[in-house]
Design brief:
It is found in: Membrane. By secondary structure, this protein is an alpha/beta fold. The protein folds into two domains: about 190 residues, no CATH class; about 30 residues, no CATH class. Strands 3-2-1-4 form a four-stranded parallel sheet, covered by helices on one side. Helix 4 links the parallel strand 2 and strand 3. Helix 8 runs antiparallel to helix 9.
Length: about 260
């Protein structure tokens, strides 16, 4: 059974038009208190892929890619702003939805008021899951570090939707033009890098993609880049043993210690 994790569904305070008036008021207040004043036009931002994917959009992408309702999905995020109204379309498509609260039987996460334990659980589940899908790749250390960590752990599968390419497809769907929707989504997603090695291009962070600097090579041009042998620990032990037996001072010290112990 495949396990898929998703992160970032709560990052909407810069794209507030999808919320009702009361919710917009809360988000505007939050934005004013925490960010510099900036002209933000929802339709313009969304058209260029600057808005996070909604839960429904995430569900539609996964469905178009062939994931069905038996897929187990772990949502690594805080409580979704807007609540069940936004989550229902996603849950209808993928009912096997979990988060760190639903998987905790000890209630330890509930009593952890700092929230750090829940974040740690989120991180480890995302790191070890079959597939990881961040829905927003803005300034998030959580998502960026996970992308790099999963890359370093053997190029684990990651789905990174191209929001800019997907935006006109979703806008057409909202305007009633639904013909060929799933095929259009698939065409975009087929161009996506699914966690394989790729050269880092600015502004991609080193922490998100440390290839090739932090990776060894099977057939390197520079011997220093060569991967260690599979039995590297045995080789190191053998070298250490040879060094001890070939070094007169070390051998004399070892013999002296042995006599003292006797």
């Amino acid at each position: 059974m495949k396990t898929l994790t998703s992160h970032g569904l709560e990052w909407f305070f810069r794209c507030i038009d999808i919320f009702n008036l009361e919710e917009q008021s809360i988000l505007k207040k939050y934005r004013k208190e925490n960010f510099a004043e900036k002209r933000l036009v929802y339709k313009e931002r969304r058209a260029i892929g600057k808005c996070p994917l909604t839960p429904e959009e995430v569900g539609l992408i996964l469905h178009a890619m062939g994931f069905d309702n038996s897929t187990r999905i772990y949502l690594a995020a805080g409580e979704i702003f807007g609540g069940e109204r936004f989550m229902k379309p996603f849950r209808d498509l993928f009912p096997r939805l979990e988060n760190h609260s639903s998987v905790d039987s000890s209630e330890e996460l509930v009593t952890n008021t700092q929230g750090l334990l829940g974040s740690a659980v989120d991180y480890m589940v995302c790191l070890l899951s079959d597939i990881f899908m961040p829905t927003y790749d803005g300034p998030s250390n959580f998502a960026n570090n996970l992308l790099g960590h999963r890359l370093y752990y053997g190029f684990r599968t990651t789905i990174r939707p191209d929001r800019k390419a997907l935006a006109p497809i979703f806008i057409d769907r909202e305007n009633g033009r639904t013909a060929g929707f799933e095929e259009a989504v698939r065409r975009v997603m087929l161009k996506t890098n699914f966690g394989g090695p790729h050269k880092r291009v600015s502004p991609e962070s080193f922490y998100t993609n440390s290839w090739p600097e932090c990776f060894c090579q099977v057939s390197p041009k520079n011997p220093a880049d060569k991967c260690p042998p599979d039995n590297v620990l045995e080789v190191l032990d053998s070298r250490l043993e040879n060094k001890v037996t070939s070094d007169p001072e070390t051998l004399a010290e070892k013999n002296s210690t042995s006599r003292t112990e006797r």
